[in-house]
Design a protein that fits this description.
The structure holds 2 protein chains of 2 kinds.
Chain A: H1 2-19, E1 32-36, H2 40-66, E2 69-70, E3 84-89, E4 97-102, E5 105-108, E6 125-126, E7 129-130, H3 137-164, H4 167-172, H5 181-192, H6 199-202, H7 207-230, H8 233-238, H9 240-245, H10 249-277, H11 279-287, E8 290-294
Antiparallel strand pairs in A: 1-8, 2-3, 3-4, 4-5, 6-7
Chain B: H1 7-22, H2 31-51, H3 81-88, E1 95-100, E2 106-109, H4 110-115, E3 119-126, E4 132-141, H5 142-149, E5 157-165, E6 172-178, H6 179-182, E7 188-193, E8 196-197, E9 207-209, E10 222-228, H7 241-246
Parallel strand pairs in B: 1-10
Antiparallel strand pairs in B: 1-2, 3-4, 4-7, 5-6, 5-10, 7-8, 7-9
Classes of the chains: A alpha+beta, B alpha+beta.
């Protein structure tokens, strides 16, 4: 009877763990333990920045779509001298012809991807779909700035929190151990095989995770905010050096869109990893802070 | 709307944000969302006003950096016989009216404007679509004309009524600035571009150059300037044609 009871008990506990029914003290089974992994500021930052980045990527894509060309330098117009260009021509037929140009290479993207902007309202395309009649570009920009404020304010607060709470050192900076080539190679191999972390290893961010988060928090997001600010007329008066730092107004715009692409790539991989590492557990840990650690040797 | 970005907008924006966070906004009730937009615009305006406290000028460029083929955007040629006749007469019959909350309403010919103290500046025009181009603009500082007219104490905004209609809804183009931007030394009523009279596509005979803000604020084909204390009785009350039609942001220093 004893064994059967223990087995049932363990199974119940596991189910409860996955439903988030047990608190930190509920980790009495030998199979699992619960860590209080994400303090409130981390969770607030995560969801504020997730909302902001989702809004920014969507509205930013629509803004790019209005003038889908990237230039280097101060000025840029009508796609002349662009190093990346979606050009569209509305021929006398239903499907507009579009092509993507990167440097000297050209790809015909008709019907797949593109933007037709030069045939007036009603003829505007949002990537492949026709813009709805009541689509308001001006409002799209308004929302972009609203999301940018949310991101900039939460990023600043979170950066201060990371430093003041020493969380930067405790959880994000790679340890000397992390940075050993063998360890990095091991992590890469684990990631390639989509293996999830277990036991003690699951209680800390792995080295690839740490590097990804550091790059996003200290390079990509500040890069987004500063290249966005560099495009502002007011900033060009108040801090003329900012635009010069990027090599001109259009360079700042190009850096802004390329960085956005990298950020979008991070978001896709990040969400994918949540599914690999256990959706319920990770979502719960980012909502309640509590993270169930799989014990070693589990199948 | 008494002012596009008022203290009330900030407060109701905060209330809207609170309502959203508390989850008590109805799904069909979009007002808190609008208020969030108002809150964001207020943040932008006030943050940028702090940055502009020292009254800096936007960057000016050299003649060598002038864009050879400056794009023509918006109205290429105002419709109707009235504009055609003005153009054929080289705008000799055109007059700029300055009226509203001023002590001396003015009616100024192009020649009178050209005789006033002038400023030439080579600046970058940034369109909200994403392109940018550099040109030299010559004109009279707007602040000079407003001083001649004499602003009354209750004046808050300067509205530019234009001769062109945008085809989408057939209303005349208009734009507005608050007095801080109107009095900026680089804010011009420009009659010259790249050393030539202002071409039709760029707003002949007179256009606004507001270098602190982006493209659509730079109204072309200016017909009259009205000084007001509130914007809600003009157009749909959002302070400009794109603001009314497309919900573009009114303070466009971004």
């Amino acid at each position: 009877m004893g064994d059967a009871f223990r087995e049932t008990y363990a199974r119940c506990t596991r189910a409860e763990l996955h439903l988030g029914l047990l608190g930190a003290q509920g980790s009495a089974t030998p199979m699992n333990r619960i860590d209080y992994r994400h303090p409130l500021p981390v969770r607030l930052w995560h969801w504020a920045s997730a909302t902001a980045v989702a809004g920014l990527l969507l509205t930013g894509l629509l803004i790019f779509d209005i003038h889908p060309h990237l230039y280097w330098g101060e000025t840029g117009l009508e796609g002349e001298g662009a190093f990346v260009s979606f050009s569209g021509r509305h021929l006398e037929r239903q499907v507009p012809s579009t092509e993507l140009r990167i440097g000297a290479s050209r790809w015909n993207t008709t019907g797949k991807l593109g933007s037709v902007i030069d045939d007036g309202f009603g003829g505007q395309y949002l990537l492949v779909a026709q813009a709805p009649e009541d689509w308001q570009f001006g409002a799209t920009r308004g929302w972009h700035f609203a999301c940018a404020w949310l991101l900039a304010l939460s990023l600043t607060s979170y950066a201060v929190y990371l430093l003041v709470s020493h969380r930067l050192h405790r959880t994000l900076l790679p340890t000397r151990n992390d940075l050993r080539l063998k360890g990095i190679a091991h992590e890469l191999w684990q990631h390639v095989r989509l293996r999830r972390q277990r036991g003690e290893a699951a209680r800390h961010y792995n080295v690839l995770q740490k590097i990804a988060y550091l790059v996003v928090i200290f390079i990509l997001l500040p890069g987004m905010v500063s290249s966005g600010l560099a495009m502002s007329n007011t900033m060009s008066a108040a801090w003329p050096g900012l635009s010069a730092l990027f090599g001109g107004h259009q360079s700042a715009r190009s850096v802004h869109f390329i960085t956005a692409l990298l950020l979008a790539a991070f978001v896709i991989v990040h969400v994918f990893q949540v599914f690999v590492a256990g959706f319920t557990n990770l979502m719960r840990s980012m909502i309640t802070g509590r993270f169930a650690v799989d014990s070693d040797g589990e199948p | 709307m008494s002012e596009p970005i008022s203290r009330r907008a900030v407060l109701s924006g905060l209330a809207g944000a609170g309502a959203l966070l508390a989850g008590c906004s109805r799904v069909d009730d979009k007002i808190p969302f609008r208020q969030l937009l108002g809150l964001s615009d207020a943040f932008t305006l006030h943050a940028q006003r702090v940055l502009l406290a020292g009254r800096p000028l936007v960057r000016e460029y050299s003649l060598a950096q002038v864009t050879r083929k400056f794009p023509v955007n918006g109205t290429l040629m105002p419709p109707g016989d009235a504009y055609r006749r003005l153009l054929d007469g080289h705008f000799r019959d055109w007059q700029l009216k300055v009226h509203g909350l001023v002590s001396r309403p003015l009616s100024l010919s192009l020649a009178q404007l050209q005789d006033m103290p002038s400023r030439s500046q080579i600046t970058m025009h940034n369109c909200d679509e994403g392109w940018s181009a550099i040109a030299q603009w010559t004109g009279v500082p707007l602040g000079h004309v407003l001083s001649l007219a004499g602003l009354l104490p209750q004046s808050r905004f300067v509205v530019f009524h234009c001769l062109d209609k945008i085809s989408m809804d057939g209303n005349y183009y208009y734009e507005s600035l608050d007095l801080l931007d109107a009095m900026h030394p680089q804010t011009l009523l420009a009659y010259g571009m790249n050393g030539q009279p202002l071409p039709v596509g760029h707003g002949a005979p007179l256009r606004l150059r507001i270098e602190l803000q982006i493209g659509y604020k730079n109204a072309k084909f200016v017909d009259r300037i009205e000084v007001v204390d509130r914007l809600d009785s003009i157009g749909k009350g959002r302070g400009g044609w794109w603001e009314d039609f497309d919900r573009a942001v009114w303070y466009a220093g971004q």
